[in-house]
Amino acid sequence: MREERKEACKNMNGSYEEQTDSYGPYTVPGSGSYQEHGSERVGRPTTESLTKSRPQILIAGLPGSGKSSVQSVVFHKISPHETVFLAATESVHKHEVGNSAFVQLQILDIPGKLGSVEAEENLDSVMKGCSALIFVIDVTSENTDEALSRLKDTILRAYNANSNIFIEVFIHKADALTEEQRRYCQSELQERVDDELRESNDKVINRISYRTTSIFDHSVFEAFSLVVQRLISELGALESMLDLLVNRCIMEKAFLFDEVSKLYIATDSTPYHPQDFELCSDLIEVNIDLGGIYSEKIAKKGAADKDDDDKSSKGRSSTATIHLSNNMILYLREVSQYLLLVCIMRRQNFDGNVGLIEYNVKIFAEGLREIIERRRQELNLPSES
Amino acid sequence: MAAVKQKLLLMGKSGAGKTSMRSIIFANYVPRETSRLGATIDVEHSNIRFLGSLTLSLWDCGGQDHFIDNFLEAEQENVFKDVAVLIYVFDAESMETKDTDYFRRVCDAIYTNSRGAKIFCLVHKMDLINENEREQFCKVREAQLKKIGERLDLTCFWTSIWDETLYKAWSEIVRCLISNLDTLKAKLRALCEVCEADEVVIFERATFLVIAHAVIEPHDDIHRFEKISNIIKQFKLSCNKKRAGLESLQVQNANSTVLILDFTVCTSIMLVCSDTRIRPAAVLHNIQLANEGFKPLLDDAPIAGSDMLIEPKNIPSSAPKASVLR
Ligand SMILES: Nc1nc2c(ncn2[C@@H]2O[C@H](COP(=O)(O)OP(=O)(O)OP(=O)(O)O)[C@@H](O)[C@H]2O)c(=O)[nH]1
Ligand SMILES: Nc1nc2c(ncn2[C@@H]2O[C@H](COP(=O)(O)OP(=O)(O)OP(=O)(O)O)[C@@H](O)[C@H]2O)c(=O)[nH]1
Ligand SMILES: [Mg+2]
Ligand SMILES: [Mg+2]
Question: Which family is this sequence assigned to (chain B) (predicted)?
């Protein structure tokens, strides 16, 4: 019955995906030919030079493993429960992601179904240009053997096409598993894959990371954050800047987030707890949602009494402060376009020190600006105005 | 003043989503967790302290045919007498003549036993109806249901556990049971003016349902308060995961400041200011001063802090459910 409904809704709604019917299977459409939601939203032009410099991430896996879901939930803000309406992907879909300076990507969502011989050959050239490969494996599926053999083939193919490629295995739909099962599943899968690959090519083994994911919790955002971080060459610099900030302000933890995707770009070197990430990313959501509700009015109001408001409002970047009952403070601050700093602090280190904290955050933002400026020059991105 | 106990019947066919909505609003479930709920046997009865002066006596009535038949026949008087509110839940995706027939019989039973009761029809699981067809769908259904309940005071809502519509409907439902709402609104308006805020909203603290609001600067989005209920409730739950309560939240964007904080024992308050010259500290001070004046309206009657909410989650699913019918 569930299946029936899915079919019906699919026909009524059409699919969520872009129409790229004019492109044959496994041919990547030329850049700039259409705009993806993300880049439209931030209003940045998708020029030829710009898209060329964006690192590509290829998402592969068996049909129905959840490739399009992962991509749509993380980058298109589709609600997880709405992914049941996604139609099977029929050809390669290229999604331009242009959020903050650190999340400039092209995501290639390919069909799980095997294509024609020609299409399969084309895949090799696609892989050559990719910086990372994500292989999605469905833990709820019965045909583990088929998934494993596809996993092995895909990995070897990607590695042969491009030995610098980062390989990520998403052990997906893990919402069906308990915490313990997640760990077990991951170690067992890793062992099996390692065994199989050792026979054919043992160098590739070190390039593979395994993560358990689900679109119904934060794990897919956490995993994708780590994928994106592997592609950021300035990561070390960002981390030491965060360390410095955390030290100076006696913070418990600090994250630098890409606002639109809610991926974290970097964090300081204090121990990482998944709940900290979850809480910080939920705060970003609250910040976005409340901002969304109360910004419409502002636009209207701003038009009415322009000269009065203009000065005071333009300079004000977004901030949020949360007091928790366990004497912790969550402190959010916009530090650059679409980049948010979110910190966890003890109340005794926050109260009375707000001025100092703001000053240090300002210094951090200045350092960040330099890094971004250099990055923009290297990647040929238009500079922030 | 002792707390007034009001009886709410929650009815509708099996699988319509009655226990789901009750668990989300009153027992801190997240929507996804409702897929694990089993069918309700007979009636699950819960007493919910809502504000100081009100206790909701909620009867979650199992929706399988033999249960409904029993309620309508042998148990009719027990179930349908002294009802303040009937909440009848329909599954939007499968509304059949059988459902409307049952609804008709339930309306008759209400008319016989509790003529003054308010009826709320919640056409639920609207997320499963194609967006383009919703408007037409609602029009047809509303006319149909209003016809059936024409002798009664009936309101229709279109709900889904996946968005704020659930909070909209339940806020309206509980608001019709709060007695001193007008006094409260007047007081709130005064507070809003003193703080030079654009708007002020009071939420019940545990459910985050909207109790009352005062709006000075008009806003286009008429559903914003329910959206905020939903947003903040979700955030409170994620704070709880870290074993921490949410005490206050202050968000400043371009040129508005939103403040949400604990107010009286039973409530939280939200203030929105678009005048950037207003200092949050001053607003906080005003709210603290106002607190005393609002207490009698909101927290009156003894408050038993911890037993405010029933936690069905703590009941092992295998344990027999308390039934008020036996
Ligand atoms: N339980 C659960 N279901 C998921 C998850 N991710 C995706 N799904 C479901 O898996 C189904 C298939 O998802 P798709 O994203 O269309 O799969 P795909 O890999 O793109 O499939 P093809 O395009 O045919 O290759 C959908 O019904 C999703 O709702 C997850 O994390 N948990
Ligand atoms: N799509 C969708 N599913 C919902 C919604 N609300 C509830 N459900 C699902 O509907 C199923 C049945 O929900 P219940 O709350 O147990 O139904 P009930 O009305 O209490 O049923 P009985 O106890 O047998 O009378 C659950 O799997 C819920 O997850 C909704 O708004 N949309
Ligand atoms: Mg797909
Ligand atoms: Mg039930």
Answer: Belongs to the GTR/RAG GTP-binding protein family.
B235, A283 contact by CB (below 8 A):
yes
Nearest to B256 among A287, A298, A320 (CB): A298
Q: Residues A75, A91: one domain? A: yes
Q: Apex CA A231: angle with CA A230 and CA A237, to 5°? A: 80
3-state DSSP call for residue B268?
Answer: strand
Interval B51-78 mean pLDDT = 91
Q: How far is CA B132 from CA A13, A37, A76, A105, B128, in A?
A: 9, 21, 21, 33, 12
Residue bearing tokens 């027992």: B27
Given the CA of residue A111, which atom of ligand 1 is nearest to it?
A: 25
Judge whether residue B16 has pLDDT over 90.
yes
Let me know if residue A30 belongs to a domain.
Answer: yes
A384, part of any domain: no
What CATH code is carried by the domain that includes residue A358? 3.30.450.190
Residue B36 at interface with chain A, using a CB cutoff of 8 Å: no
Question: Does A385 reside within a domain?
Answer: no
Full residue range of the structural domain in which residue A332 is found:
235-379
Specify whether A222 is located in the same domain as A250: no
Q: What ipTM did this prediction achieve?
A: 0.82
In order of start, what are the domains of chain B with their CATH numbers? 4-175 (3.40.50.300), 181-298 (3.30.450.190)
Indicate whether A292 belongs to any domain: yes
CA atoms within 13 A on the CB side of B125: 16
The pair of three-digit structure tokens given for residue B122, joined into one six-digit string: 């919640």
Distance CA A276, CA A272 (A): 8
CA angle A129, A132, A135 (to 5 degrees): 120
Length of chain A: 385
CB contact under 8 A, A81 and B32: yes
- Contact residues on chain B for A1, CB-CB shorter than 8 A: none
pLDDT at A53: 67
Give the 3-state secondary structure of residue B56.
Answer: strand
Mean pLDDT per 10-residue interval, chain A, length 385 residues: 38 36 32 34 41 81 94 92 88 87 91 78 85 94 88 91 92 90 91 87 86 94 96 93 94 95 95 93 92 67 44 63 94 93 95 91 94 82 59
Q: Is the dihedral of CA A294, A296, A298, A304 positive or negative?
A: negative
In this complex, do A302 and B255 lie within 8 Å of one another by their Cβ atoms? yes
Query: Does A319 lie in the same domain as A198?
Result: no
CA distance linking residue A336 with residue A101, whole number of Å: 9
Q: What is the CATH number of the domain that holds A193?
A: 3.40.50.300
The bridge status of strand B256-262 relative to strand B246-253 is antiparallel
Indicate if A176 and A82 belong to the same structural domain. Answer: yes
Q: Which of residues 217-276 of B touch A (CB under 8 A)?
A: 217, 219-221, 224, 227-228, 231-232, 234-235, 238-239, 241-256, 258, 272, 274, 276
Query: Do residues A340 and A330 lie in contact, with contact meaning Cβ atoms separated by under 8 Å?
Result: no
Domain count, chain A: 2
